[in-house]
User: Fold these one by one.
Assistant:
Number 1:
Amino acid sequence: MFDILSIIPGKKKQTSSGWTSFNALCCSHRGHTSDRRGRGGIKFDGQTNWVMHCFNCNYSCSFTLGRTINSKTRQFLTWCGVDNEQIQRWSLESLQHKDILDFIIKRKREEIKFKTKKLPDGDLLDKNNLQHKFFVDYLQKRKVNLDKYEFYVNPNNKNRTQYGIIVPYTYKNKIVGNTTRFIDNKIPKFINDQQSGYVFNIDNQNNDWTVCILVEGIFDAISIDGVATMHDDISNEQASVLAQLNKKIIFVPDQDKTGLKVTDRALELGYHVSLPEWGNGVKDVNDAVVKYGKLSTLLSILEHATMSKIKIELRKKQIAKGI
């Protein structure tokens, strides 16, 4: 769908009350003096729904994903310079989200449950255990915070599992699955025990955070404190789990052919998409964290987050040329 803040011309300012203020366009169109004091405001309800109110002339309108764009919102978009054909396309596109959103809302009202499971045999990773140094070095090379995340290893095994790092999956602080990441440069790299609908690292999302970074891979999520789908799609069930967070979702795909395909699905779900310009050799979030650091990577993700299909398609074409 469309990014309303990128459509409104002029400077915008975030207020402590949750509004984004701007010079209201409606005043001059309604016979009032042009606003030069930032009396217009946009406030988001969730990720894509918003209300607009002018604190000068009292004009207001709103947008809700899954519904058509009403006459007042059409009028506001026209004042922003959007033509009627584009508004009609957005209105029809919004309706296409209805079935998906109805499903997510229904699941959101239900209690989401996952079966508890046991982890494979292994010992908690210990930075001071010389037998664990092989695993510690690997994780530190990938800029993983060993004090925040727990891993299990079994270096004394006689089979391939001696080279595996066991990553627990938790939901409401209970073990509901795991993945083993093998670091012996053989195939497969991962063996997963994942229940349908599960989103990795969901338990570590702070209630005070307004944004949730959604990625594909486990180590991408760990390195940025985000969440991961762990495959190249976003299922309706996973969208329901994410909806429980009540946060703005920014999807950061791997910058390869498979990852770029998922951007349409993210937009369909009302998520923002971020495709930062990280340079050669950086194809995912973890690569970026290793090269630039966590803070710089996070800032670049936030800076490039958008819901504009045009911007996303242009960036995808740039990335595709380098693949």
Number 2:
Amino acid sequence: MLDRGCWITWYDLPEDGRDDYISWLHGSYISARLKTPGVLWGASYASEEKVVHPGEKGRLSHTDGAGVPAGDRFILVFGGETAHAFADPTPAEFHASLTDEDRKMLAMRVGERSNILTEEGRADGPEAAQRSSDLTSAPCIQVGSFNCDYSEEDELAAWYAQWRLPSMEKLPGCMGVKKYASVSGWAKHVIFYEWASVQARNNVFVNHEASNSEMEDWTDRVVRKLNHAPGSPNLARRLWPEA
């Protein structure tokens, strides 16, 4: 069984009541969603602060759309057999089925946005053997969510297929990487890296293209054409299940 579908939610939380929300999320909400047929696993994360990304030269651009929710400090991820696992019921239908107390907890989320996604391609990294047997995502993830002009999407697909995903197969500390296309949500494209730890990512990812100037130049050209969601890309540490 493979998890070809994904539902990712980004949001912030107020300080007041945060611990109660986290306890509810881990103790009630995730287990309730896992009862949906086709939903295979769930995990929650907290985003890291002051993250350094490869080749940062002011090349990352972010949407200034006022209608795009800007929450990104917490990330909730579910994996499913296909994207349709999150369309029957939809997130709105699932939330409507919850109790009043559950919906009060949901209302604590600030700047919430989400994407339902279908897998475009994947690659295993050197640490793939560390994956959980139930497919739950890694102790550390990096998630980029973005759009680009339709005229640039063939090059974007080629870059992922020919360079970025194959390069991750050799990078120490990497458990794997998945490229998704969106079924619903603001971002049309999502890239989902899995790492053994935050430190493992920081040790190798920032400078991993330095020895290949041709590919580093290609990366620079592609990345400058992307329009990221607020806060993207996020580096995040898993809160639940505990690593």
Number 3:
Amino acid sequence: MTSSRSHFTVIKFMLVLLALSMVAAACSDSDSGSSTTQSETATTVSADPKAQSETATTVSADPKAEWPDPVIFALLPTEDAEVLTEEFKPFVSYMNNCLDTPVEAFVAVNYTAVIEAMRFGNAHVMRVGPFAYTLAHERAGAEAIVLPTGNKDNPTYRSEIITLERYGFNELSDLEGATFAFVDPASSSGYMYPRQMLLEEFGLANDEIDDWFGDVVFSGGHAASIVSVLNGDVQAAAVASVNATKDGEYDDHPNWGEYQILAETREIPGTVEAIQGDLPASLREALTACYLGIIDDPSMTEFLAGLGATDGYILTNDAAYDIVRDTAAALGLDPATLLK
């Protein structure tokens, strides 16, 4: 009896060992399988880093997602707003196609309005004169990128003092007591440079020049100043050479035959195309490329000629306008005062 019971105990013990062995094996297989699955899963995630890179690139592949929509260009009121808007239609169309994004342009009411538009994000690109640019750089963070030119070797222009022959003015000193039109206090060729020339010529202080003339007015635009002279509203005016010499622009005016250029200032750095300083780098690069490429588009030849930019656009930068800042400082022209 004892022998039989012992035999049964041994068998029971062996069955328990067998069961434990099977459980251990099963756990081992499960762990192994789990490990393999995790390993395979990890391999699947990281096996093709190129694929991951492409996926990541796809997420941010369209830099235009960061661009303003539309991209807005602001123009100085160098001419009548309606005329200027019509003249720049080809440019807007070109930029629209070149950037492959919506583009709009507007003519500001004055120089300060252009600067304030960029300051408050209502304009992303501006076409401005050199002095207005320095003000925009200081107040609105504008950054010069390109300038239009008819001479790549000397991309400058001048201010011209214009009058009519009927007044008998032969030299600058004859303007004493005359009625005179400046364009805008923020204009380089329509105010700062001709004013400097007159001050140097006659040894006057800046606050004496207005009294030296008989009367001084601000026309608001170069074309307006030219028309004011032709109409006899003022006897003389200061205007940009590129505006004063447009072929055929004023030929039909009855007084055009009397039109006279009395004097010219020294050279002025060219009108500049400037952008908001915090625009995405991709848009800055695209805009620069479009400006530089415009010369190669046959449909833009007439537009460039009208702009006096037969050589297209060339690169520029903020430092190119330091000479304008120096001139303004010498005249005591304070940006804060001018932009009130």
